[in-house]
Write a structure and sequence with these properties.
about 230 residues
Protein backbone atom coordinates (compact mmCIF):
# COMPACT_ATOMS: atom_id res chain seq x y z
CA UNK A 1 0.00 0.00 0.00
CA UNK A 2 2.75 2.42 0.98
CA UNK A 3 4.71 1.47 -2.11
CA UNK A 4 1.67 2.16 -4.32
CA UNK A 5 1.26 5.59 -2.71
CA UNK A 6 4.91 6.41 -3.34
CA UNK A 7 4.53 5.33 -6.98
CA UNK A 8 1.45 7.57 -7.40
CA UNK A 9 3.26 10.52 -5.83
CA UNK A 10 6.30 9.97 -8.04
CA UNK A 11 4.08 9.80 -11.11
CA UNK A 12 2.28 13.04 -10.17
CA UNK A 13 5.57 14.78 -9.42
CA UNK A 14 6.94 13.65 -12.76
CA UNK A 15 3.90 15.05 -14.58
CA UNK A 16 4.22 18.40 -12.81
CA UNK A 17 7.92 18.62 -13.55
CA UNK A 18 7.27 17.69 -17.16
CA UNK A 19 4.69 20.48 -17.55
CA UNK A 20 6.98 22.99 -15.88
CA UNK A 21 9.89 21.97 -18.10
CA UNK A 22 7.69 22.18 -21.20
CA UNK A 23 6.46 25.65 -20.22
CA UNK A 24 9.91 27.13 -19.64
CA UNK A 25 11.36 25.41 -22.70
CA UNK A 26 8.65 26.95 -24.88
CA UNK A 27 9.10 30.33 -23.19
CA UNK A 28 12.86 30.36 -23.72
CA UNK A 29 12.48 29.33 -27.36
CA UNK A 30 9.97 32.15 -27.83
CA UNK A 31 12.35 34.62 -26.21
CA UNK A 32 15.20 33.48 -28.46
CA UNK A 33 12.98 33.90 -31.51
CA UNK A 34 12.14 37.44 -30.37
CA UNK A 35 15.84 38.22 -30.01
CA UNK A 36 16.49 36.96 -33.54
CA UNK A 37 13.62 39.05 -34.89
CA UNK A 38 14.88 42.11 -33.05
CA UNK A 39 18.35 41.61 -34.49
CA UNK A 40 16.99 41.35 -38.02
CA UNK A 41 14.75 44.38 -37.47
CA UNK A 42 17.76 46.37 -36.28
CA UNK A 43 19.59 45.48 -39.48
CA UNK A 44 16.88 46.39 -41.98
CA UNK A 45 14.15 49.03 -42.20
CA UNK A 46 11.58 46.42 -43.24
CA UNK A 47 11.51 42.76 -44.24
CA UNK A 48 10.96 41.67 -47.87
CA UNK A 49 7.32 40.68 -47.29
CA UNK A 50 6.45 43.71 -45.13
CA UNK A 51 5.68 46.08 -47.98
CA UNK A 52 3.44 43.62 -49.82
CA UNK A 53 1.57 42.64 -46.65
CA UNK A 54 1.16 46.26 -45.58
CA UNK A 55 -0.40 47.18 -48.93
CA UNK A 56 -2.71 44.17 -48.65
CA UNK A 57 -3.92 45.13 -45.16
CA UNK A 58 -4.39 48.76 -46.16
CA UNK A 59 -6.62 47.58 -48.98
CA UNK A 60 -9.15 45.94 -46.64
CA UNK A 61 -12.56 47.47 -47.34
CA UNK A 62 -14.57 48.49 -44.29
CA UNK A 63 -11.72 47.95 -41.84
CA UNK A 64 -11.25 51.67 -41.15
CA UNK A 65 -13.74 51.98 -38.25
CA UNK A 66 -12.41 48.80 -36.62
CA UNK A 67 -8.85 50.06 -36.93
CA UNK A 68 -9.82 53.44 -35.48
CA UNK A 69 -11.51 51.80 -32.47
CA UNK A 70 -8.62 49.40 -31.80
CA UNK A 71 -6.03 52.16 -32.12
CA UNK A 72 -7.83 54.60 -29.83
CA UNK A 73 -8.38 51.85 -27.25
CA UNK A 74 -4.63 51.26 -27.18
CA UNK A 75 -3.64 54.91 -26.84
CA UNK A 76 -2.26 55.93 -23.44
CA UNK A 77 -4.98 58.50 -22.57
CA UNK A 78 -7.60 55.76 -23.00
CA UNK A 79 -5.71 52.61 -22.02
CA UNK A 80 -4.30 53.96 -18.75
CA UNK A 81 -7.60 55.00 -17.08
CA UNK A 82 -9.32 51.90 -18.49
CA UNK A 83 -6.66 49.69 -16.92
CA UNK A 84 -6.99 51.40 -13.55
CA UNK A 85 -10.79 51.21 -13.71
CA UNK A 86 -10.77 47.49 -14.47
CA UNK A 87 -8.19 46.88 -11.72
CA UNK A 88 -10.42 48.74 -9.27
CA UNK A 89 -13.46 46.70 -10.28
CA UNK A 90 -11.54 43.43 -9.85
CA UNK A 91 -10.23 44.59 -6.45
CA UNK A 92 -13.81 45.16 -5.31
CA UNK A 93 -14.50 41.45 -5.90
CA UNK A 94 -11.79 40.66 -3.35
CA UNK A 95 -9.18 39.55 -5.87
CA UNK A 96 -6.54 42.09 -4.92
CA UNK A 97 -3.62 40.10 -6.33
CA UNK A 98 -5.31 39.94 -9.73
CA UNK A 99 -6.00 43.67 -9.52
CA UNK A 100 -2.29 44.27 -8.93
CA UNK A 101 -1.46 42.10 -11.94
CA UNK A 102 -3.80 44.16 -14.11
CA UNK A 103 -2.02 47.36 -13.07
CA UNK A 104 1.33 45.72 -13.78
CA UNK A 105 0.32 45.17 -17.40
CA UNK A 106 1.81 48.64 -17.93
CA UNK A 107 5.28 47.15 -17.37
CA UNK A 108 5.63 45.22 -20.68
CA UNK A 109 4.89 48.38 -22.64
CA UNK A 110 7.56 50.24 -20.70
CA UNK A 111 10.00 47.42 -21.44
CA UNK A 112 8.95 47.63 -25.08
CA UNK A 113 10.19 51.22 -25.18
CA UNK A 114 13.63 50.04 -24.06
CA UNK A 115 13.69 47.32 -26.72
CA UNK A 116 12.58 49.81 -29.38
CA UNK A 117 15.42 52.17 -28.47
CA UNK A 118 17.95 49.36 -28.79
CA UNK A 119 16.57 48.12 -32.13
CA UNK A 120 16.03 51.69 -33.46
CA UNK A 121 13.94 50.64 -36.42
CA UNK A 122 12.31 53.61 -38.20
CA UNK A 123 8.58 53.68 -38.74
CA UNK A 124 7.13 53.16 -42.24
CA UNK A 125 7.70 56.11 -44.57
CA UNK A 126 4.83 57.90 -46.29
CA UNK A 127 6.36 57.23 -49.71
CA UNK A 128 6.09 53.47 -49.11
CA UNK A 129 2.70 53.05 -47.41
CA UNK A 130 -0.34 55.17 -46.60
CA UNK A 131 0.33 56.88 -43.25
CA UNK A 132 -2.92 58.15 -41.73
CA UNK A 133 -1.96 58.34 -38.06
CA UNK A 134 0.83 59.87 -36.00
CA UNK A 135 3.19 57.86 -33.82
CA UNK A 136 6.45 58.81 -32.17
CA UNK A 137 9.51 56.73 -31.39
CA UNK A 138 10.77 53.64 -33.10
CA UNK A 139 8.76 50.89 -34.73
CA UNK A 140 9.80 47.45 -33.46
CA UNK A 141 7.96 45.90 -31.68
CA UNK A 142 4.43 47.32 -31.64
CA UNK A 143 3.53 48.69 -28.23
CA UNK A 144 -0.20 48.74 -28.96
CA UNK A 145 -0.12 45.04 -29.81
CA UNK A 146 1.87 44.19 -26.69
CA UNK A 147 -0.58 46.13 -24.56
CA UNK A 148 -3.59 44.42 -26.16
CA UNK A 149 -2.17 40.90 -25.80
CA UNK A 150 -1.18 41.34 -22.16
CA UNK A 151 -4.17 43.36 -20.95
CA UNK A 152 -6.98 41.63 -22.81
CA UNK A 153 -5.26 38.26 -22.58
CA UNK A 154 -5.11 38.53 -18.80
CA UNK A 155 -8.74 39.66 -18.66
CA UNK A 156 -9.67 36.66 -20.83
CA UNK A 157 -8.17 34.39 -18.18
CA UNK A 158 -9.58 36.31 -15.21
CA UNK A 159 -13.08 36.15 -16.69
CA UNK A 160 -13.16 32.50 -15.64
CA UNK A 161 -13.00 33.46 -11.97
CA UNK A 162 -14.57 36.93 -11.97
CA UNK A 163 -17.63 36.67 -14.24
CA UNK A 164 -20.01 33.96 -12.94
CA UNK A 165 -22.62 34.18 -15.72
CA UNK A 166 -21.69 31.82 -18.54
CA UNK A 167 -23.21 33.92 -21.32
CA UNK A 168 -21.64 37.18 -20.16
CA UNK A 169 -18.31 35.42 -19.71
CA UNK A 170 -18.45 34.14 -23.29
CA UNK A 171 -19.28 37.59 -24.69
CA UNK A 172 -16.55 39.23 -22.62
CA UNK A 173 -13.96 36.72 -23.78
CA UNK A 174 -15.11 37.16 -27.37
CA UNK A 175 -14.53 40.92 -26.99
CA UNK A 176 -11.06 40.33 -25.50
CA UNK A 177 -10.13 38.02 -28.37
CA UNK A 178 -11.40 40.58 -30.87
CA UNK A 179 -9.28 43.35 -29.35
CA UNK A 180 -6.16 41.17 -29.47
CA UNK A 181 -6.70 40.08 -33.06
CA UNK A 182 -7.65 43.56 -34.30
CA UNK A 183 -4.74 45.39 -32.66
CA UNK A 184 -2.09 44.18 -35.10
CA UNK A 185 -3.81 44.84 -38.44
CA UNK A 186 -5.05 48.18 -37.08
CA UNK A 187 -1.49 49.43 -36.60
CA UNK A 188 -0.52 48.33 -40.10
CA UNK A 189 -3.70 49.80 -41.59
CA UNK A 190 -2.86 53.33 -40.40
CA UNK A 191 0.76 52.99 -41.50
CA UNK A 192 2.58 53.30 -38.19
CA UNK A 193 3.99 49.76 -38.10
CA UNK A 194 5.25 47.11 -40.47
CA UNK A 195 3.65 43.65 -40.25
CA UNK A 196 6.90 42.32 -38.76
CA UNK A 197 6.65 44.95 -36.00
CA UNK A 198 3.19 43.61 -35.25
CA UNK A 199 4.42 40.01 -35.27
CA UNK A 200 7.17 40.97 -32.83
CA UNK A 201 4.55 42.64 -30.65
CA UNK A 202 2.41 39.52 -30.57
CA UNK A 203 5.41 37.39 -29.62
CA UNK A 204 6.58 39.86 -26.96
CA UNK A 205 3.04 40.11 -25.60
CA UNK A 206 2.58 36.33 -25.51
CA UNK A 207 5.81 35.89 -23.54
CA UNK A 208 4.74 38.56 -21.05
CA UNK A 209 1.20 37.16 -20.79
CA UNK A 210 2.56 33.71 -19.99
CA UNK A 211 4.35 35.17 -16.97
CA UNK A 212 1.23 37.02 -15.85
CA UNK A 213 -0.85 33.85 -16.03
CA UNK A 214 1.86 32.03 -14.10
CA UNK A 215 1.75 34.73 -11.42
CA UNK A 216 -2.05 34.54 -11.34
CA UNK A 217 -1.96 30.77 -10.84
CA UNK A 218 0.72 31.04 -8.15
CA UNK A 219 -1.82 32.45 -5.71
CA UNK A 220 -4.02 29.38 -5.94
CA UNK A 221 -6.39 30.79 -8.57
CA UNK A 222 -7.92 28.45 -11.12
CA UNK A 223 -6.18 30.42 -13.87
CA UNK A 224 -6.25 29.03 -17.37
CA UNK A 225 -7.89 25.85 -16.10
CA UNK A 226 -11.07 27.90 -15.74
CA UNK A 227 -11.18 28.35 -19.50
CA UNK A 228 -11.82 24.68 -20.06
CA UNK A 229 -14.17 24.27 -17.12
CA UNK A 230 -16.83 26.83 -18.07
Amino acid sequence: MAEASRDSFSSLLGQLMSRKTLFWSAWVLGALLLVVMAGLAAATAYFPADLRLAHWVQGWNGFGPIAAFANVAGDGPVAAPATLAVAGAVALTGRRWDAILIILTFVPRLLRDLVAEVVSRPRPAADLVRVSDKASGYSFPSGHVIGAVVFYGLLFVLAGVVIPHRGLRFLFRLFCAFMIVAAGPARVYVGVHWPSDVLGGYLFGALALALFVLAHNSRGSPGVKAIGND
